[in-house]
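Q: A reviewer asked whether we had any structural model of the full assembly, not just the individual parts. We don't, so I'm hoping you can provide one. Inputs are below.
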Amino acid sequence: MSTKSVQISDAAPDPIADDLIGAGQEGTLLDQVRGYFSRVRQGEMGVLPAVGGMVVLAILFTILNPLFITERNFANLMTQSATLVMLAMALVFVILLGEIDLSAGTTYGVAMCAFVVLVSVVHVNWILALLAAFAIGLAVGAFIGFFVARVGIPSFVVTLGLFLGFQGLELIIIGNGGSYAVQVPQILAIMNSNLPIWGGWVLLAVMVAITIGTGFWDRARRKRAGVPNRAQALLWAKVGVIVVLGGLAVFFLSQNRGAVSDIRGVPIVVPIVLFILWIGTFVLDRTKFGRYMYAVGGNAEAARRAGVKVIAIRWIAFIICSTLAVVSGIFSIGQVGSVDATSGRDIVLSGVAAAVVGGVSLFGGRGRLIHAAIGAVVISMITNGLGLLNLPAGANYLVTGGVLILAASVDAISRLRSGGSLFSRS
Amino acid sequence: MAEDAPLLELTDVKKAFGPVTVLRGVHLSVYPGKVTALVGDNGAGKSTLIKGLAGVQPYDSGTVVFNGHEVNLTNPRHAASLGIEVVYQDLALCDNLDIVQNMFLGREETSGGFFDEGVMERRTSEVLRSLSVRTVESVRQKVSSLSGGQRQTVAIARAVLKEAKLVILDEPTAALGVAQTEQVLNLVKRLAEQGVAVLIISHNLADVFKVADFVSVLYLGEMVADVPIAETSYDDVVGYITGSKTYERARA
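A: Here is a predicted structure for the entire assembly that you could use as a starting point for your response.
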């Protein structure tokens, strides 16, 4: 974006009134860009390292194996990462409070075992079975919330107990070595079917409309309150990025990627993930509940003194986490096509890693859903890319671990430079 | 000296923890628009007195008259609803939130269920401006990036935003350097100029003599002196605090 276009589209940003202190929204587009970089230098890197990592990995893997950038692999990457993206987003809700849910994976495991047994053995209607699965997630979250928020046991301990216990529960439900095929076409379709071509373009149009709509809504309200707005060009730049990147993605996915039959379109799981991402972000950014999540994660005592019901916030956070984990479980069985007694056992630490790689702080109070989602995509890219290189499975874990430590270091060092100490937790 | 009636008047307040009597019948008056300093050595009962006013730890006996009415301060919410705000030493700010978010924490402005950030931003600016705060660059700065004095400023401004009638400051300058102490003391003066009754607890008598209109001295759970700052001296106050001097004349 050049300064020339600023003068055309937004010649006069709202002047700041004399009686106001700045809010970082005044000035031209150029001032805004400068402000952004100065915040980045101060250690507020946000999603930048994860996006950078994503780009570097994409280039690297494409050079090493051009298959990486094909339409088919692009679609594969989306469905392969969906389960982890969803689980990482679920975990954000507890990580924001400085808590952890080690049982998020096995929670969905138990819920999916129950689901598949209800459908295949008890012959319950699949929608009822799905509701039962969600009820399990909700109940588990309430259970964890009770022991963490009310009884005061560290969440690490409570959820470690559940992590172990649920593995046993899965064995009991499924039976040792047993496995059930998922016989619900609707569940399989989430991961294996695609939107019609026009559906992808409608999805993009909706995203653009929402971006423009909320953008102008915010500007109107700020104007009414008499505080300065950002240069309007910034909004259009954001829309431009969505149009270009989203347009490329939809176009790419609209090409035939089938080897035998004709396969094209945006995978159905994509709009589901985007919808949950949007709702969750909206709640975290614009409602009291969301603000109190950050406040409790930042300084629970301060939040309590300000009148925040800290216990209730903690409780609800665990319920949201476990319930969203069930969504992740649905993606998982849709992709694998079957459920066995180890369902969800190995994924939870990858979910935590994804959140951290994306820039969510395990100390609480810092991070957004999009961070966890991008972190999850980065980790899925490593698995996917190394798989294409036919490297041994060991390499995958080594590289993922290295990326995790690298990401955490980049974050910590950027904070050190901004004046914090190595041991400060901000 | 004080033509106005006191905003807060404590009479014969007592508090004991088991066999240990901490407050032995304390009298205290705090006037609107004036700064009253509460001083005393460690263990004199300052914290216990404050916690009673905040409603955190109710007194055992004695009367509390606030704004002309006798009140029974039994919980923090009640104290806050009367307009009593305590700014504690540890400030109770969330480092990860910005100034506006901290100022409005627990009482956010919404319209249609969602935040009205513009209104909150404007109010924050106005309150800080009314306190002549010049050191804050942007109201959207994270609190983690603020200096100790600026944090104290935000905490005090939050009390102003809540339209507190009585603001109790617990050691507001304890951890601050010289320049920042000066800033905060100026802020305390402006707070009083707005008609707020200020009760400031401090170990630093230099600060007390700079800002206070009255000084009340606690010694082993009793209010041993209660005197306009103009009518006493540094040495006298030290004497009252250490118990080596006694103050004879009760305030008229």
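A: Points you may want to mention in the reply: Confidence is low (pLDDT under 50) at residues 1-15, 420-426 of chain A. Residues 44-193+309-408 of chain A form one domain.
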